[in-house]
Specification:
By secondary structure, this protein is α/β, with parallel strands linked by helices. Helices cover 39% and strands 18% of the residues. The strands form two sheets. Strands 1-12-2-3-4-5 form a six-stranded mixed beta sheet, with helices on one face. Strands 6-7-8-9-11-10 form a six-stranded mixed beta sheet. α7 links the parallel β3 and β4.
Length: 369
């Protein structure tokens, strides 16, 4: 049966072999060898769409996963550069009526794609930067001025984002001494039995007012109920259309959470039902795409992830289109502030970040002067 998710990458590889590898001045044997390496990068796609679970690619050994990841990243990066090269080639030959240096252009694309892939893969796999964001919240009581929230999202624990990575992430987060830790989704890729150890360090997260989370779309791709029990064991309180109230002196701060739309249970109105009047609300919603709808519920601040910051130029524009204009950073949506994190780690499906570093976001709340 025709599968476009497999056929399209195969077509892309064929295009790259014809327009990038064949023009190179190397032996036929070298070209065949390079073509086979390129095609091997499609192993991730075949594993993704042909295994019974659909996600067995996440269970490959570390170095094999890393190899397939790097080659697949090269395929994605190279195709955009080749499209630009070929547009210039058509312009030179049809409009300017001048010869085009095909060999040098192919060599240039290959070299730039290789360097960009190595850089992007390294950026995706390294520990995230720590970035502090100050945000003024309307109606925030003075007792909550300088309230510190550590935000972790899109960890995607798997073969590449393993226990060692998560342990270091926890250590660096705790060192920030946050008042609250919020984790709006996409904790893991894999079954509980195989990925439990990788997320185990999360139980050591510490914050004065606790650790809270919501589900992302990837929680629904595996053992959803099993992971909900596991999060509870890890002392992460999951908010499923719920809220809790933090009280300090005469002031209150409300934190609400909604599950991802994948489960058809997303209900913001239920999450903020019966909240105290005039108390500012912080909403965790994994995807930023519902921000305009959420803003009607008098939300002060929405925290989201899901987009991974766009990951690289060109793809950034596609991610923006599919997320209703929200990709990374701060937005004003009616009277609501929206913060879209670039993510704390990477997703194995495309573990590449070019000019898009991951981050542990430290949000410092400020009372309006």
């Amino acid at each position: 049966m025709f599968n476009p998710f497999v056929a399209l990458p195969l077509l892309v590889c064929t295009y790259e072999i014809l327009t990038m590898l064949l023009p190179l001045r190397i032996s036929l044997t070298a070209k065949i060898f390079a073509s086979l390496i390129l095609l091997s990068g499609l192993a991730k796609i075949f594993l993704l769409h042909r295994t019974p679970s659909g996600f067995d690619m996440y269970e490959l050994p570390y170095y094999l996963t890393l190899t397939f990841t790097a080659i697949f990243n090269f395929i994605i990066v190279a195709v955009f550069l080749l499209l630009i090269k070929d547009c210039i080639q058509v312009f030179c030959r049809l409009i300017l009526r001048k010869p085009f240096p095909n060999y040098y252009a192919a060599l240039f694309v290959f070299s730039i794609a290789l360097c960009a892939t190595l850089y992007g893969t390294y950026e995706a796999l390294k520990q995230p930067q720590i970035k502090t964001h100050e945000v003024v919240i309307n109606n925030l009581g003075r007792e909550f001025d300088n309230f510190r929230i550590a935000m972790l999202v899109d960890i995607h624990a798997d073969t590449l984002t393993n226990r060692e990575f998560v342990q270091e992430l926890v250590t660096r987060t705790n060192a920030l001494n946050p008042d609250l830790i919020l984790m709006p989704g996409d904790f893991v890729d894999g079954q509980v039995a195989t990925r439990r150890a990788d997320l185990e360090p999360l139980k050591d997260l510490r914050a004065k007012f606790g650790v809270y989370g919501t589900t992302g779309n990837h929680e629904y791709y595996f053992d959803f109920e099993g992971w909900q029990k596991e999060f509870k064991r890890l002392n992460i309180t999951m908010l499923n259309n719920e809220h809790f109230i933090i009280t300090s002196g005469d002031s209150q701060l409300i934190v609400a959470g909604v599950p991802d739309q994948t489960g058809d249970e997303h209900n913001t109105s239920l999450a903020v039902k019966d909240i105290p009047e005039n108390a500012p609300v912080i909403l965790m919603d994994h995807r930023p795409s519902e921000a305009r709808e959420n803003s009607q519920y008098n939300i002060a601040l929405q925290l989201s992830g899901h987009t991974h910051g766009g990951q690289m130029p060109i793809i950034y524009s596609l991610v923006k289109k599919f997320n209703r204009g929200f990709v990374r950073g701060w937005y004003e949506v009616n009277n609501m502030k929206l913060f879209v994190s670039p993510g704390t780690s990477q997703w194995n499906g495309f573990a590449c970040r070019i000019f898009d570093p991951s981050e542990i976001s430290l949000l410092v709340l400020k009372a309006k002067p």
